[in-house]
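We now fix the convention by which a protein and its fold are recorded. Here is one such record, which you should read through line by line:

>
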Amino acid sequence: LSERLGQQVVIDNRTGGGTLIGTEIVQRATPDGYTLLMATPPLAVNPSLYPKVSYVLERDVAAVGNVAGSTNLLAVHPSMPANTVAELVALLKAAPGKYTYGSSGIGGAGHLAMALFERMAGVQAIHVPYKGGAPAVADLVAGRRNLMMANLTTAQPHIRAGKLRGLGVGKAKRSPLFPEMPTIAEAGVKGYEATNWNGDVAPAGTPRAAIERLHKEIVATLQEPAIAERMMKAGLEPVGDTPAEFAQYLKSEAAKWGRLVKSAGIKPE
């Protein structure tokens, strides 16, 4: 992207606050096209999750485009006597509250994806939040947790090594990285879909010409075979939709997860 724009692109990682810190920095930045937020699902979820956030999604950010998608994957420790989603549902129904699952934190993508699974499948498990997805997966691999709705990018090496068992993916369609693995919807929980995304937004008021130029060069970068191949190996599928399409998607994500946060009574610590 730096080569295409003729400008150095600097990655400024601002961790903490469930992505709120990074979001606030971009929200307050000069809307000149030189500051972007690589957003993830919490951008759409946080206004419903936290009583006070500094931004209103449709008012304070301008969509540039969805860059890449990755799927959640329902994984269990190999000691679990469940080889399919249906068998896991039966196991959880027989012993509600017995089994535990980890996540990257309350209100994170993995937690919400699992909460949606629990409600749609009519099951109950104990949520154990961690400070990040990696330690949650590590405890699942070690057998200290029973199951998890993990990001495919994190879980795939453990599944290929036989340290975890993947039962289904959260996408509406099967993942090209695991074509033999069914979707959770086709494996028995009809209508289930929970995916992760990585998309660019800019501060509200960024000139339309700047947004269109950024979108054009981002899409061109995603279409480079070497870039696309590297992303796919990491579990990321290039997207590159338009600013208007991404804006509509953000709106639908906010509505979907907002309903779940409210109905499930999910509250941050």
